[in-house]
Specification:
Radius of gyration: 22 Å
CATH topology of the largest domain: Aspartate Aminotransferase, domain 2
CATH architecture of the largest domain: 3-Layer(aba) Sandwich
Oligomer: single chain
Order of helices and strands: HEEEHHHEHEHEHEEEHEEEHHHEEHEEH
Helix content: 25-40%
Bound molecules: pyridoxal-5'-phosphate
Structural class: alpha/beta
Strand content: 15-25%
Number of strands: 16
CATH superfamily of the largest domain: Type I PLP-dependent aspartate aminotransferase-like (Major domain)
Distance between the termini: 33 Å
């Protein structure tokens, strides 16, 4: 695909050299050239302004360019952008580690910092595996996760994703498979999981789950009692429980953590996307004190054997501290609860459009599930949304909104109206029944 006359030079030149994520570059249209962002608006090179419904892969939860975060990053850049975290300490990383357990009501939890969500999950797996190793239970090397789940794109995390819908069919057999089960949504599926855990006694290091909402697997929701059942089963079978809160975490569902909706605490927890308000790459793996204690010993080899170059990056941690300030100073959770009240009625008219299978949502998530015929239909819709002046990017069989928590009500209404209009057009264009 080639650029039109208004496109900046760097777009086509760079497109011929860059490798885009999850994109069939032979057929995909050129991406939109973004030249500025502010709040819930993205300005394109040709001067158009789009209302953003995605928050850049669900991360920009305070909108773009929030001055409090920008100031924190600029101030930190002038002092210390980064120093290595072995032998040296920086204030933003240590402050963030101390704040997270307080703010998340996880007293005594330790934070390990990495740069991406996938790596945070990898670190959770390594902590779980080494926890058992340090305790002398050397047979616990497997992990169990759930159908419909998504935990990242690196090798170990791919093995935890849904084997069919998890984007990674090309890599089957390259990584050792893990155990994939159905979520314990009812007594029957809980009994099946109970039996599986019993059959695998002594072999499983940890169970990994996205609490309340499976994000990249299609924004599928489950009830809080699934988490209570998981906690109970893991305790019964002596297995560690990991909550991957990289999507659900930090306010998306109206509580800081999704696990709080079930009043369940995991042994290990991962955060990333919203951690810096979507500004800089940063992730955290938090582990309970009981887990941490298994690494305390007079033997060096009992320490956590992990250390990314940029762990505890001072710039990113300063951005994260500023982002946490905003939850308190600008009442973010109340804003998410208000969004939840607006989203459901605004998207409800989609139910009457032929081809719409489900309309659902929770917190700052709104989802319209479609009877999608194939990838051409997704591409067609993506183009129509740009024409409507909004950035909304349907994938698999859903059109969704994960806006900034502080999106103005007018902008949210325009996003919802665009969804109703484009879904109706799609339904007519592709003759849905
Ligand atoms: C996005 C996501 C990841 C992976 O994070 P990256 O930063 O893309 O590596 C892992 N788990 C969940 C639940 C996610 O939504």
């Amino acid at each position: 695909m080639t650029a039109d006359d208004t496109a900046p030079d760097w777009l086509q030149t760079g497109y011929d050299s860059i490798w885009m994520p999850y994109t069939q570059m032979q057929t995909a249209p050129l991406p939109q050239a973004a030249v500025a962002t502010r709040g819930s608006r993205i300005t394109l090179a040709d001067g158009r302004e789009l209302i953003d419904g995605v928050a850049s892969w669900w991360a920009a939860c305070h909108g773009y360019n929030h001055p409090h975060i920008v100031d924190a990053i600029q101030g930190q850049a002038a002092k210390i952008p980064h120093v290595m975290l072995a032998g040296l300490a920086n204030e933003p990383a240590f402050t963030l580690a101390a704040r997270l357990p307080r703010l998340l009501d996880l007293p005594g939890y330790r934070a390990f910092f990495s740069e991406s969500g996938s790596v945070a999950v990898e670190v959770a797996l390594k902590i779980a595996a080494q926890y058992w190793h340090n305790k002398g239970e050397t047979g616990r090397k497997k992990f169990l996760s759930f159908r419909g789940g998504y935990h990242g794109d690196t090798f170990a995390t791919m093995a935890l994703c849904d084997p069919v819908d998890g984007f990674h069919a090309a890599f089957q057999g390259v990584v050792p498979g893990q155990l994939i089960a159905d979520l314990p949504r009812d007594d029957a599926s809980a009994a099946a999981l109970d039996a599986l855990l019993a059959a695998e006694a002594g072999t499983i290091a940890a169970v990994v789950v996205e609490p309340i909402v499976q994000g990249a697997g299609g924004m599928k929701l489950h009830a809080p009692d699934v988490l209570s059942r998981l906690r109970h089963l893991c305790d019964t079978h002596g297995v560690l429980l990991v909550f991957d809160e990289i999507f659900s975490g930090l306010g998306r569902l109206g509580t800081m953590l999704a696990g709080q909706l079930a009043d369940v605490k995991p042994d290990i927890l991962t955060l990333s996307k919203t951690l810096t308000g979507g500004t800089l790459p940063l992730s955290a793996t938090l582990a309970s004190d009981a887990v941490f204690q298994a690494f305390q010993s007079d033997k060096l080899e009992h320490c956590l054997m992990h250390g990314p170059t940029f762990t505890g990056n001072a710039l990113a941690c300063a951005a994260a501290n500023a982002s946490l300030d905003l939850f308190q100073d600008e009442g973010r959770l109340a804003q998410v609860q208000a969004l939840e009240q607006l989203l459901a009625p605004a998207l409800a008219p989609c139910r009457d459009i032929p081809g719409v299978k489900d309309v659902r949502g929770q917190g700052a998530i709104g989802v319209v599930e479609l009877d999608i015929g194939g990838f051409e239909e997704l591409t067609w819709m993506r183009g129509r949304f740009i024409e409507e002046g909004v950035f909304i990017r349907p994938f698999s069989d859903i059109v969704y909104l994960t806006p900034a928590y502080n999106i103005p009500a007018d902008d949210l209404a325009r996003l919802c109206d665009a969804i109703i209009k484009v879904v109706a057009d799609w339904s007519a264009q592709f003759e849905k029944k």
